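Q: C-alpha cells for this one, please.
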Amino acid sequence: ELPGGVAQRANPAQVHADLLLHVARNHPVLLALDDVHRASAGDRVILEAIARGLVANPGLRLLVVCVGALPLGADAPEWTLPGVTPERLAPLSDEALTERAAHLLAGGAAPPSPALLRQLAEQAAGSARVLELLAGLASRHRDEPTGAWLAREPQAQGLAALARGQRPAMTARVEADLR
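A: Here is the predicted structure, written as C-alpha cells:
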C-alpha cells in the first residue's frame, strides 16, 4: 500500500509522489531533473509533494537533484521547494561557453570566427542562457563575422549587463528615465 490516505491518492500529483516515495523506502532512488525552471505547474506540484514527503520521512533513500536557470539578473529562483535550500553553481568557464557558442552557431554557411566565439563567451559572463540569447543575435549578424555588432547592439549590451549582475543599476536607470 502506498503512503498517504484515500483523500491524498485522489490528487494525481500526490499519487506520483507517493509512488516514488514508496519505492525509496526499499531501494535507493536518484531523480535528476534538468531545466526545472521550465517545469509546468503540474510538475511543480509533484516536486512539492516529493519535497514534503522527504521532509516528513528523512530516512528515505531518495536523492532529488534539480538543475535550472535563474531568471536573468536574479539572485534567487522564481520558486523553491519546501524544506529545500537551493545551491548556486559556479558560472560556466569561458572555454565551456566558447565551445557552446560554436555548437549553437554551427548551422551557418561559414563557421563563426574564434574571435566572435571568444567575444560571445566574454559577454555571457558565465551564463549559458545569456550565451544562447547572444548566439541568436549573432545568427542575425552573420554578415559581420568579427562581432563588431556586439558593441553597438543595445540588446547585446543589455544581456551582457544582466549577466554581470547589473540588474539593480539597470532597473534604477529605467525608473529614472520613466520619471
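A few notes: The longest helix spans residues 41-56. The chain has a mean pLDDT of 82.
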